[in-house]
Amino acid sequence: xxxxxxxxxxxxxxxxxxxxxxxxxxxxxxxxxxxxxxxxxxxxxxxxxxxxxxxxxxxxxxxxxxxxxxxxxxxxxxxxxxxxxxxxxxxxxxxxxxxxxxxxxxxxxxxxxxxxxxxxxxxxxxxxxxxxxxxxxxxxxxxxxxxxxxxxxxxxxxxxxxxxxxxxxxxxxxxxxxxxxxxxxxxxxxxxxxxxxxxxxxxxx
Length: 205
Description:
The protein is built from six helices and ten strands. The chain is of the alpha/beta class.
């Protein structure tokens, strides 16, 4: 997260009951959630090796669930572009675009077939989760399209955003602004890098 969790909680007086973390990788934010007293967590990570490491790092209990799936606007399987140079943090269901010359050391050297599911098809107690933290390398809009029944129960969205096609055909920040506006969200904070992507916070007024 480019923007620290404790900062956005303090600055916007957020009350986070639980987090749906989509594109979890190794669960790097897990300790931050714990420090903020967040007990309810659901992690979604499609790459098998990353999900195995996620299991090793996080002690699951009744309040913490891990799913070895990708989320999107379909049910089935898709081919994912996989890299290992960046420990799998840049893997995407979309073909790399400007990422290839912005980060020439990150080579997408294999592909992996992953299961894809809609968030709306996952059983979620809506009273326990009111935040989405999502980092899916340009596939964010497809995830939200598969979550139209879930978004009315969400108050906080922290997401990676793109300002150009870092991945081919990826959604841009304006696409997210327009789609999430339909569910009452406004982008209230953006932190961008020099390389055409960044993180953004969306809240309901």
